[in-house]
Please model this.
Amino acid sequence: MDPVYSVPVAAVKIHGVRHRYLALVGLDLVRQVGEHACKFLPGKTCAIVTDTNVGPLFARRVERSLTSASLKPIVITIPAGEKSKTLKQAGAICEQMIAAGLDRQSFVIGLGGGVVGDISGFVAAIYHRGIPHVQIPTTLLAMADSSIGGKTGVDTRAGKNLIGAFHHPSLVIDDVDVLKTLPRRQFNQGFAEIIKHAIIADAKMFNQLQSWQARSPRRPLALQQLICRNIKIKSNIVAKDELDRTGERAVLNFGHSVGHAIERAGNYRKFLHGEALSLGIVAACAVSIKRAGLAPGQRDAVIDLLQRFDFPTRLPKNFPREKIFKALKFDKKFEQGEIRFVVTPRIGAACLRSDVTLEDIHEAVGEL
Ligand SMILES: NC(=O)c1ccc[n+]([C@@H]2O[C@H](COP(=O)([O-])OP(=O)(O)OC[C@H]3O[C@@H](n4cnc5c(N)ncnc54)[C@H](O)[C@@H]3O)[C@@H](O)[C@H]2O)c1
Ligand SMILES: [Zn+2]
Model:
C-alpha cells in the first residue's frame, strides 16, 4: 500500500489560557499547506521563511500549494545555522516583508528546523505588533519540541535566546516525510529532547524507546505516534505555566543547565545541542541521585538509552571542564546566586529544587 494512505493525519489539539491551535502530524503534508492555511488563517498573503538547506528541498512545494489555494506567498531564505538567529537577520526579514507589501492581515510560515522556527516566530510576534505564525518544522527536534510552546527569539553575543517573545503558532504542520532528507546526526538530536520528555513525564515512553533502535528508526507510523506523544507532553507542561513563571514549565529544562554550559564551553562547535543535552542529562541524573533519591539503576538505564541513540555520556578526556564551570555562572538560572535545578526522583517525574549546590553540580560534571 502507498504509505501516504496508510498513515492518516493526526490532529493534536493544543490549548492554554492564551492559545488554541492544532498540530497536524502526517505524511506528504507540505503539499496540503495551502488547504490548511485557508482553513485556519484569515489572511491571503504570507512570507515563507526558510533556510538555504531546507528551501531548495521543500519551499517550492509549499509555495505551489499556497498559490493553488489562491494565497500569495513570498519566499525569504536565510543562511542555514544558528548564526542566522540574530536581531539583524530578523530585521532584514521584516524589511523584505515590508517591501513585498505584507500587512497586518498577512501571516508568516516558518519552514525549517528550530532556528527558522524561532526567528520566524519572533518576526511574526513583532511585525505590525503581531501577526499569525505557522510552524512547518523540518527537524525531529523542531517537531517534538521547539515548534510547540510559543517561545520565539534570537541570540545575542552574550547568550542564546536572550531576546524574544511569547507568540504561539496558529497552526503546526508536521510532515514526517521531510525527515527523510535530514542527515543522521541532525535527525538524532531530536531524540535527546524526546528522552528528556520521557524522563520528566512519561515512564511508558521511556520503556518504548528502549526497543526503538531494534526497529527502523525512521518508520513513518512509529515516528508519527512518537511526535504526537511528545507534542502532548510538552504542551501539557506549557499549559500549566505558559509564561515560565511558576516553575512548572522549568521542568522542560531538565539536563539543560549543564547541557548549555557544555555547549558554550565547546564554543557551539564541539557538540550539537542534543549531544550536549545528553551529557547534561547524565549530570542531572547524578545530582538527582544525591538530592532527589533517584535509584542508581535508573540513572544507568538513562545512560544506556542515550548510548543506544549514539549520544555521548562521558566528556572527552581533554575537554576543558573549567570552561563548563565558568559557563554555568552565565546561565540565566544561576543568576543572583540562586540555583534552581531540575531533578528527577524517578523516571517519569521531575521537579525544581533550590537546595542543589554548585558543589553538587561540579561533582556531577567531574564524573562525566
Ligand atoms: N523555541 C523553543 O522552545 C526551542 C526549544 C528547543 C530548541 N530551540 C532552538 O532550536 C534551534 C535548534 O533547532 P534544530 O536542531 O532544528 O536546528 P536547525 O534549525 O539549525 O536545523 C539543523 C540543520 O538541519 C538542516 N535541516 C533542517 N531540516 C532539514 C531537512 N528536512 N532536510 C535536510 N536538512 C535539514 C538545517 O538547515 C540545519 O542545517 C536552536 O536555535 C534552539 O535554541 C527552541
Ligand atoms: Zn533543548
Observations:
- Residues 193, 256, 273, 277 surround zinc ion (ligand 2) (CB under 6 Å).
